[in-house]
Structures are given as C-alpha cells and as structure tokens.
Write a structure and sequence with these properties.
With 178 residues, the chain is mainly beta. It has one helix and 13 strands.
Length: 178
C-alpha cells in the first residue's frame, strides 16, 4: 500500500495495490501488519457500512473523551467527498480540514486518528460507504459541528440546495460556538 501525507499530522490517504485482469480486480482493504508498519498501531473493533443517495451529507461527527474513535474509511461503490476537521487540543492544525474524493474506482481510503470530526457528502447517484473504528460507538459521547460553518468554509463540491441532512445534523453548532 502507498501512504500519502495530507498536511494534517496523522491523517493519511492510503492507496492499496490493486491487481486486475480480465476477471476483475483484487486488493487487500486492510492488512494489520502493513498498516501498523506504515501508518501506526491501531486495533479496530467495529466495521460499519452505510448506503446513501446523491446529496446526502453525514457529518461533521465526532466522539468525545474516552470514546473517541480513529477510523479507516472507504467507498465500495460510488463517490464521496470525505472531510476531516482537526479538533485535537494544542494541535498546530486545530480547526483545519482536509477533503479527499474517495470512489469505488480509485479504491483510496483515508485514515482519521482520534480527535477529528468527520463527514462526507455523496457525489454520485448512490454510494456504499464502509469504515472501521478502533472504539465502540457511545451515543452519550457523540458531538457534531455544522457542515456549513463559515469559519471552516468547506467546499462540499455540490450546491447547498442539494444537501440532504438528518434532523440531528441540521442543528449542530459552529466550531467556535462550543
């Protein structure tokens, strides 16, 4: 696997080695030994999958305190703009964000360490999105920030009128309001 730095410490894009022929393709979506050597030690405890349609924006979500989660995210089918925001106390990139287009064709993954808010918007007609977490989900420890926070000024690459949010995601505060 090829590991690409993003400019935010700990957040990396991973390009797996894809082997293809007339039958299709094969790649390792996760290899703990290689991941630990090239990215760092992590022990994933939960895999999640979601299916969404064009314009669905899930985020910006995070888990607080002892329930913080590192994630390894990828797209199985379709495409998303995947976004992370650094929330780590004392980080020189606190409040900065990174966006990466993840698709079923490019097979790219993004590793998000603990201490980040995460979200994605669906760019294709439909997407199947998968992610691994290194900690179990705890509803009492969840938090979120507004997707349209003007201080973040994230370019989600689709018109705001096309954004589809859950009821919960419609009411998150701006980053500097907490």
């Amino acid at each position: 696997m090829n590991v690409i730095e993003t400019g935010i410490e700990g957040v990396v894009v991973i390009e797996p080695k894809v082997f293809g022929d007339e039958r299709g393709y094969f790649f390792e979506s996760f290899n703990e030994r290689e991941f630990n050597e090239k990215v760092g030690p992590v022990h994933f405890v939960q895999d999640n999958e979601s299916k969404s349609r064009y314009g669905v924006l899930r985020g910006l979500h995070y888990q607080k305190g002892e329930f913080a989660q590192a994630k390894l995210v990828r797209v199985v089918r379709g495409s998303v703009l995947d976004v992370v925001v650094d929330l780590r106390e004392g980080s020189p990139t606190w409040g900065k964000w990174h966006a990466e287009e993840l698709t079923g064709e490019n097979h790219r993954m993004m590793f998000i360490p603990r201490g980040f808010a995460h979200g994605f918007v669906v760019l294709s007609e439909e997407v199947v999105f998968q992610y691994k977490c290194d900690n179990f989900y705890c509803p009492a420890s969840e938090g979120g920030y507004a997707w349209n926070d003007p201080t973040l000024a994230i370019d989600w690459r689709i018109p705001a009128a096309d954004i589809i949010l859950s009821e919960r995601d419609k009411h998150h505060p701006f980053l500097y309001e907490q």
